[in-house]
Amino acid sequence: MNYLDLLFQPRRFFSDELIHSKNSAVLVASWLLGIACVAERIDFKLMEAQLQVAAIWRRTEIESVASSWAMYWAALLLGGAFAAVFGWLVGGWWFRKRLLWSNAVALTAERARRRYGYHALVYTFPCVAVTVVQTVLFESYLAAWKAEEDWSTVIALIPIVFLFASCWTGYIAATVSFRLSPPKAKLWFAVLPAMFYVFSMGLLTFLFAGCCR
């Protein structure tokens, strides 16, 4: 599995049927997806704590996990194994629904899930890689979360770039792997997801701005 091909030559990557038959690669992709899901969940809980909308005991619980790299990585690795199943089933189902709405033919749930797992790697791999870098640079994830240095902010924002890149990769995965309507696929796999991410990030920025006043 060549991540650089996935990132820079997605048409070549998704045209290679051999890679889609490798169960070990699919398992790695699914596990990284699960780890990214758990990391996002922890980030969301930390946001709730900062906005003071969570119960005090929940704030204490999530901050205790984020205060130790051992506990944080244990949550990611163990929780990621369980979340991988959820991501594989639900994420794969949603990927398949968008294919159906794009008039895809010769469509099976297994083929859709495998393409979903690989296209999600565009985002999940950098997400995990950034966490590894933060582990080296900070004493805990909570310290990385609260860091105010410009360079730490840039590191934390790197996955967002790849999140938007994954929208285009999802469109390529759909059009290369299935016979469908390209305009509809572009809408469901590239345009609408990107709009959703922009809206979500704008909402979070608004909430944080209001909290910090």
Distance between the ends: 47 Å
Low-confidence stretches: none
Taken from the alpha-carbon principal axes, the silhouette is globular
Quaternary: single chain
What's the number of extended β-strand segments? 0
Structural class: mainly alpha
SS field, number of helical segments? 10
Descriptive notes:
- The chain is an all-alpha fold and 213 residues long.
- The protein has one domain.
- It contains ten helices and no strands.
- Helix 7 runs antiparallel to helix 9.
- The longest helix has 33 residues.
- The protein is globular, with a radius of gyration of 18 Å.
- The protein starts with a helix and ends with a helix.
- The mean pLDDT is 88.
Question: How would you summarize this macromolecular structure in one to three sentences?
Answer:
This protein is mostly helical and 213 residues long. It has helices at residues 3-8, 10-15, 17-20, 23-51, 56-66, 69-101, 109-137, 141-146, 150-177, 182-211. Helix 4 (23-51) crosses helix 6, helix 6 packs antiparallel against helix 7 (109-137) and helix 7 (109-137) packs antiparallel against helix 9 (150-177).
